[in-house]
Amino acid sequence: MQFQQLQYFVAVAETRHFTRAADLVHVAQPSLSQQIKALERELGADLFLRARGNITLTDAGEALLPLARRILADADTARHEVQELVQLRRGRVRLGATPSLCTGLLPDVLRAFHDRYPGIRLLIEEGGSHDLVRELARGALDLALVVLPLPSPSPALTTVELLREDLVVVSSPDAPRPGQGRRTVRVADLEGERLVMFRHGYDLRELTVAACRAEGFEPDFAVEGGEMDAVLGFVRARLGVAVVPRMVAARSGRGLRVTPLARPGLHRTIALAHRSDVAPPRAARELQRMLLER
Prior knowledge:
By secondary structure, this protein is of the alpha/beta class.
């Protein structure tokens, strides 16, 4: 099994077309087809069902695809690791983070990292923890900031706890203060409040809804489905209140009233994760160090 054959196989699997796949990997279509057939002979199984105008994966092809993608991603990581020059003058870091962490935690750390290593490209992917865990597993990210506990079942990941962050309630200064004007808000006080809620799969949505149900009520959504910036904008527009991380509220305070949650409050645990079977590249390890020492 040759590395080039895996490249051609993944290209056909993703384009579902031999000619377009050949263009994608810059090879003549007959050569690509010959290499795919050679790979099928070596494996002893057809990888594609070839009907006129319709290319689909066989069961063997479906089984090989995630493994081939991981091999190619690992090879790409190794290539970048070797190409890095002394003192991290060149390279890249592929970092995943939830949108709230991109807003609250990362700007200052990434600024410090960029000032120290201006030649390192920072590739940031925003997503929920479930999505980021999947991207880590297939080798598309070097590191990810995720919310613990990880979704179950999870691939083999190494996690290091980074911080435990309080959640707060944000509302429009023009709207009545939640909790009948008290300086803190209990989760029970959110019963009857119209909530601005994040999309499904968002860690903060799941945490907030679970906390409300633990108090014996179902939350009432004024609007739902947004990312962090949209949720804050809807709160400013007096559509409702929202539960957000303290760091996000501190950075986005203009046009928002921030009210702490009464003890024991709500918290979330943030961890830095990477694949257990592959060490992060050198530049990613340096960013990891800066995040842990921040």
